[in-house]
Amino acid sequence: MTAIIDGIALARRVSQETADTVSALAVRLGQAPGLAVVLVGNDPASEVYVGRKIRECRKVGLRSIEHRLPASTREAELLSLIADLNVDPGVHGILVQLPLPPHIDAGLVLDAIAPGKDVDGFHPVNVGRLSTGTGGLVPCTPLGIMMLLDTVISDYRGLDAVVIGKSNIVGKPVAMLLLEREATVTVTHIETRGLSEIVRKADIVVAAAGSPGLVKGFWVKEGAVIIDVGITRVTRPDGTSALKGDVAFDEVQHARAVTPVPGGVGPMTIACLLSNTAKAAALSLEGPGGRIASSAG
Ligand SMILES: Nc1nc2c(c(=O)[nH]1)N[C@@H](CN(C=O)c1ccc(C(=O)N[C@@H](CCC(=O)O)C(=O)O)cc1)CN2
């Protein structure tokens, strides 16, 4: 019988722990830790995610500072806002919702965030820390994936893991985290030859290709643990729509455990954003000698 790994329940537990940390930090900081949430433009999905992030901040006692900017915002204006937030002592975390409008260089913007406030973990300093196993802020979705895996796996040593997808946000960082646990990791992508044979050998499958139903039942080894990161809105033949993951969920009854879509990885992304904000606030108390540099560059 395949276990369904419940991301909603785990996210609730993680957020409860964050709420406890936040109330202790508020005493030490003299105010609740603050997360600046920057949304440029009006992408409907981003509006939903940002709304949810702000609501969840409130629930755990974090202050959220919203910056909603029009789609016409110039790159220089956005960089100037980031520079202000970097030096604002009331801001402990900065989140710039992606995607940004096409005229703005997202890489430039993410690199401008002070690494110590980079609660998304996308800054090269944090990427470097992750790849060298020296701390830093870890991207939220990969962090959430590891917590989901930890509910069913206690020892990763020697396990074969396959990651499908090579994005900077999910594929590459989750591969680093699995390597850190001493799994044997193969990073693949949509162009990988013989993908089904590679997946068939894996004890752990992290599917983050953004290709609905890509991973078929016969690709999956008996007893494998599957994390489905894909969330694609598809239209059914009757015209209604539904969210579909990268894994053909109904075909993997022989897996040991699988995350559902929705209700798996997605809720953990937001829970880990809150816990990263608490972590950034705690690091700020260590002063400039803390492990993550407080300035960008
Ligand atoms: N700055 C960032 N931008 C984006 C990130 C990110 O981590 N940082 N990730 C995604 C969007 N995202 C958070 O921002 C996100 C996506 C999905 C979910 C989620 O809870 N999904 C639900 C289903 C959602 C629905 O019903 O529509 C689920 O999987 O159960 C949360 C956050 C891109 N941008």
Automatic annotation (TrEMBL):
Gene (UniProt): folD
Biological process terms in GO annotation: L-histidine biosynthetic process; methionine biosynthetic process; purine nucleotide biosynthetic process; tetrahydrofolate interconversion
Annotated GO MF terms: methenyltetrahydrofolate cyclohydrolase activity; methylenetetrahydrofolate dehydrogenase (NADP+) activity
InterPro entries the UniProt entry points to: Aminoacid_DH-like_N_sf, NAD(P)-bd_dom_sf, THF_DH/CycHdrlase, THF_DH/CycHdrlase_cat_dom, THF_DH/CycHdrlase_CS, THF_DH/CycHdrlase_NAD-bd_dom
Database matches in Pfam families: THF_DHG_CYH (PF00763), THF_DHG_CYH_C (PF02882)
Record key words, sorted: Amino-acid biosynthesis, Histidine biosynthesis, Hydrolase, Methionine biosynthesis, Multifunctional enzyme, NADP, One-carbon metabolism, Oxidoreductase, Purine biosynthesis
Classification via Gene3D superfamilies: Leucine Dehydrogenase, chain A, domain 1, NAD(P)-binding Rossmann-like Domain
Protein name: Bifunctional protein FolD
Tetrahydrofolate dehydrogenase/cyclohydrolase NAD(P)-binding domain location: 139-282
Biological role stated in the UniProt entry: Catalyzes the oxidation of 5,10-methylenetetrahydrofolate to 5,10-methenyltetrahydrofolate and then the hydrolysis of 5,10-methenyltetrahydrofolate to 10-formyltetrahydrofolate.
GO cellular component: cytosol
EC number: 1.5.1.5, 3.5.4.9
PROSITE patterns with a match to the protein in the record: THF_DHG_CYH_1 (PS00766), THF_DHG_CYH_2 (PS00767)
Oligomeric form and interacting partners: Homodimer.
Protein residues bound to NADP(+): 165-167, 190, 231
Family: Belongs to the tetrahydrofolate dehydrogenase/cyclohydrolase family.
Keyword Flavoprotein: no
Pathway noted in the entry: One-carbon metabolism; tetrahydrofolate interconversion
Signal peptide segment: none
Reactions this protein catalyses: (6R)-5,10-methylene-5,6,7,8-tetrahydrofolate + NADP(+) = (6R)-5,10-methenyltetrahydrofolate + NADPH; (6R)-5,10-methenyltetrahydrofolate + H2O = (6R)-10-formyltetrahydrofolate + H(+)
NADP recorded as keyword: yes
Residue ranges of every copy of the Tetrahydrofolate dehydrogenase/cyclohydrolase catalytic domain listed in the record: 5-120
